[in-house]
Specification:
heterodimer, A: alpha/beta, 5-stranded mixed beta sheet, about 25% strand, globular, B: alpha/beta, elongated
């Protein structure tokens, strides 16, 4: 079971755009195999990078979250978007390995 | 968990690997499956109508059923990727991408295939921004859009069927005069779809668009045209994942597929192979043949370990 907080349009602003820490948002769906493979990697990074970034998820298969998928131009998953001070500063599309993803995130938030 | 000793490590968690795990459990072989995605490529199938027990089921659902059966029998699935294999029968070492090194007497390679990409310079730029390789995964994001599908085989045909239910218009690009080797029942369904336009004798030579894919340069006999669209799904086949066998100097054919015998053995003693990465099943490469090969391999391995 993932340790990462699930978001919806009701709490996206508070948890992502108004967050003091940079936030990595995982746009995913239950039927997406690569998303499923990414899940333990994101759990590990959430633990490793505690205090440096926050990691959250948006299930794009949930009709309530369609507006977020459209707003952020999601056309392929897994899609990880990194936000800092309310601004999107990077996105990572497709399956990623833990080490290279950690490296890229730390470089972007430095 | 370093240096844990297994009798069998199954590399790959698709239908071949999971079935082999089910059989290995019943044979009481001390084993584990290594694979990050239980179900493998099967999870990407929009609809499966030729698995004997299922009239119609999504690949994701069928994968979960097989995985659940395996787990109920106690199969251990290690969520990692095997990156290196060394040693010889009966003492192999399998190194994983998380740093673990596992020892095993025997190995079953059920490593499947990887999708071919277009091979165009700016391909990565459009990934997730209009360019996709999995219709089932990314299709829902193209509701009411114009979508191209490249590939005239079965995977292209099923992508056409799936996406024509979502997108406004489908343009189906393929290189020949007509789609090749597509199951007649798929073709029959496609001809009923009024929003599918075909583009035969076509080669995509360029991806266009500022931040997102908005068009293609398409070469057709005697002319090159620009085609405007919102997305392109690439379904042009796949290549075998046979690198691990090559590390042991095992034999592959001229297309890289692992050469297997009737008992799923490879040219390397103590290493078996099953599923889409192999030369078995006359290149049919179906879920049912992968399951069959996984079962045969597990039985062969059981026989080998029993007499050793």
């Amino acid at each position: 079971m993932s340790q990462v907080l699930e978001l919806n349009p009701g709490n996206f602003t508070a948890e992502v755009l108004q967050s003091e820490l940079p936030v990595l948002v995982d746009f995913w769906a239950p039927w997406c195999g690569q998303c499923r493979m990414m899940s333990p990697i994101l759990d590990n990074l959430a633990t490793e990078l505690v205090g440096q970034i926050k990691i959250v998820k948006v299930n794009v298969d949930d009709s309530a979250n369609q507006s977020l998928a459209v707003q952020y131009g999601i056309q392929g998953i897994p899609n990880l978007k990194l936000f800092k001070a309310g601004q999107e500063i990077a996105d990572f599309v497709g399956m990623r390995q833990q080490d290279s993803l950690r490296q890229d995130i730390l470089a972007k938030i430095a | 968990m370093d240096n844990q000793k297994y009798d069998l490590l199954i590399i790959g968690a698709g239908p071949a690997g999971l079935t082999a795990g089910i059989y290995a459990s019943r044979y009481k072989i001390k084993h584990a499956i290594i694979g990050g995605l239980p179900g493998g490529t099967m999870t990407e199938a929009h609809k499966i109508c030729n698995f004997p027990s299922e009239a119609s089921i999504s690949g994701w659902e069928l994968a979960q059923k097989i995985e659940n059966n395996a787990r109920q029998l106690g199969v251990e699935i290690i969520a990692a990727e095997a990156i290196r294999v060394t040693g010889q029968f009966p003492s192999f070492q399998v190194e994983l991408n998380d740093g673990q090194k596992l020892l095993t007497k025997s190995i079953l390679l059920a490593t499947g295939t990887k999708r071919r990409q277009l091979g165009l310079d700016n391909e990565d730029k459009y990934l997730g921004k209009g360019l996709a390789y999995c219709a089932t995964c990314d299709g829902p994001f193209f509701k009411d859009k114009v979508v191209g599908i490249l590939g005239g085989g079965n995977s292209g045909a099923t992508a056409v069927l799936y996406l024509s239910e979502i997108a406004t218009k489908i343009i189906w690009f393929y290189s020949g005069d007509k789609p090749s080797a597509v199951e007649p029942s798929w073709m029959e369904e496609i001809t009923k779809r009024s929003n599918v336009e075909t583009s035969p004798n076509s080669r995509i030579i360029g991806l266009l668009g500022e931040d997102r894919l908005s068009g293609l340069s398409v070469e057709r006999p005697g002319r090159t045209e620009q085609v405007n669209l919102d997305g392109l799904f690439v379904e042009i086949g796949s290549d075998p994942n046979s690198d691990l066998l090559k590390q042991l100097d095992g034999q592959v054919n001229n297309r890289g597929y692992i050469i297997t015998g009737a008992d799923q053995s490879t040219s390397i003693k103590g290493v078996w192979a099953a599923g889409d990465a192999t030369t078995s099943s006359n290149s049919l490469r179906q879920i049912v043949t992968a399951c069959s090969e996984g079962a045969i391999a597990a039985d062969s391995i059981f026989g080998c370990l029993s007499i050793k």
